[in-house]
Structures are given as C-alpha cells and as structure tokens.
C-alpha cells in the first residue's frame, strides 16, 4: 500500500498525543491475556474474538490445566472442547479452529508458533489481528493490532477514516513511529477501557481532549 503523506503540523500533533499516552500509561509492555507459552497466547487470542480479555482469562485458567500441551488440543474432542469454551461465544468455530490450528502446529511446525505473518495467518482461526498479537508479544516484532478500541479511538483522533481493520493497520503504520506500534495498541486499550469508553466517553477527564478531532466530544 502507498505511503500516506503526513504534514508537519499533523506529525507534531501525533507526537504530542504519543508523548501524553507515554506519560499517562507509561511505556511498559503488558499483555492482557494470561499465558505461559506462545501457543497458549495464540489459543487465548483466538478465544478473545468477540469476547472480553477478562472472560478469556477466566476460561483459560482451567482450560490450560485440562489441556496441558498442543498435542492435547490437537487430539481434543470437538464437542467437549465446545463445552469448555462455551462462555467465550462462537464456541463451535473457535473449538474447530483451535483443534485444526494445534494439529498444524504439531505436524508442520514441530510445536513452535511461527513468527512470519503469512505462516501465522495460514493457521486456522488466525487473522492479521491475532498474528500481530503473537508477533508483538512473543517475538517483539513491531506490529499494530487493530482491535475495537484501536479502530474506534484512532478514528476519533483523526488518525484514520477507514473502517477496514487491515487498511487501518497500514495507515497507522505510516503515521506512527515503529517504536510505538506495539505500545500504541496497549495504551489505546487502556484508554478505551478507562476514559474513552464506547458508550459514555469521559471527555471532560481526557488528557487528549484538546488534540481530539471527534466532532461528538462533549
């Protein structure tokens, strides 16, 4: 995709926003999905589609005790796994994808979660969002994860007008310095949960208020 032209004024505004995000949320790397291994994070991220991280963490607390290895997931009974993950929603497709993903990892990758995005997205149930979670958190490859918070708040900040997650990803890659790609996602998730909430954004409390382009801000 063609690089986006950024004006000097816009670059300065972006830099101010990133500085404020760093100051408010720190530059500490944090993964919101509990895991001990790369494959556990992969499965947890698959489960997180249309589900809160809190719910996923409740489910995986017992799930990873029951299925201790990738081989356990690869050999899991579909109906039983569906029951185990039922509360995360879309459990039929998720269970099917987790089993197929685990089988591929065991048979084709020796149980190692690949870091290449084309290999990751070739796994069942893994799109660019999930792939970038793995690349950023496990392999520390600069990646932008476009979740609901990033999509919504990036639009309010005027960073993008796109609706398609992949297009948003590439626009943010043009706009943000690479050393902030992973941090931006973590900070925006925190911002979306605490201040810029979807239903009742706390605009009067927002430290980004003066830099925000959202026309509906109160």
Structural class: mainly alpha
The name of the CATH superfamily of the largest domain reads Hypothetical protein, domain 2
Work out the oligomeric state of the chains in this entry.
Answer: single chain
Total strands: the figure is: 0
- In the predicted model, the low-confidence regions spanning at least 5 consecutive residues are none
* Proportion in helices: 55-70%
- Tell me the count of domains: 2
Summed over residues and divided by their number, the pLDDT gives a mean of 94
The biggest sheet, with number of strands, parallel, antiparallel or mixed sense and barrel status, is:
none
- CATH classification class of the largest domain: Mainly Alpha
What's the helix count?
11
CATH architecture tag of the largest domain:
Orthogonal Bundle
Bulk shape: elongated
**CATH topology name of the largest domain:** Endonuclease III, domain 1
**First CA to last CA: what distance?**
35 Å
The H-and-E topology, N to C, reads as HHHHHHHHHHH
